[in-house]
Amino acid sequence: xxxxxxxxxxxxxxxxxxxxxxxxxxxxxxxxxxxxxxxxxxxxxxxxxxxxxxxxxxxxxxxxxxxxxxxxxxxxxxxxxxxxxxxxxxxxxxxxxxxxxxxxxxxxxxxxxxxxxxxxxxxxxxxxxxxxxxxxxxxxxxxxxxxxxxxxxxxxxxxxxxxxxxxxxxxxxxxxxxxxxxxxxxxxxxxxxxxxxxxxxxxxxxxxxxxxxxxxxxxxxxxxxxxxxxxxxxxxxxxxxxxxxxxxxxxxxxxxxxxxxxxxxxxxxxxxxxxxxxxxxxxxxxxx
Length: 288
Ligand SMILES: [Zn+2]
Ligand SMILES: [Zn+2]
Hints:
It contains six helices and 14 strands.
């Protein structure tokens, strides 16, 4: 499995400026892709990072896309109007939306994507998109399978702790020297309860990607906002027995120098516990 980070920033795109550089860790909001087999591709979330991803996949000549969403907060959707493949005839796009408990009936991502391209917010409305677009809801805990020729990837979901609800996803598929697994659990205030569905789903994963947006002091003031700290991510990874940790969803107020200090503290703590723990970076590509 090949994992690519197209966007790592939480909440709001954060362009790099000399007073507050962000080019090292990344300024685009959340989007990752997972590739496997001959041509398997899953795209998770459509933060602003999806813009460059879309151009890249068009250059590759791709015509079929599956977009999997964690939730409908704007930093996970706002790149979609700039996802070039959606404007191309002959492209087919399947959009998978989490069925979040307690939410009114109706596909939450379908509603949100239409709404953000309505007048007066955006000139090209959703019905003007040329791609063939279909929507489907994913139930909590549902197992999905996606095939690329003989190679298959299995995807599971679990609810995170986040206002309004959010899904984390586990991906099991062919990797370097056998089956590999990764869990993408952003927009989550890490639960440390090993009996929680998220930690059960994370059990033994080769890689956990987790939300460490806040410093300890920020988290004190923002408890219940649905984001964690790098230390909580580490505790989460250790409790779940994950083999490696990558922290993402960086705060717009944190420039590269601060993120570097936070990462050094995390890496040292991880080393003491015997687990590689670092921060994600925009454009980071990992072969699992
Ligand atoms: Zn977010
Ligand atoms: Zn969110």
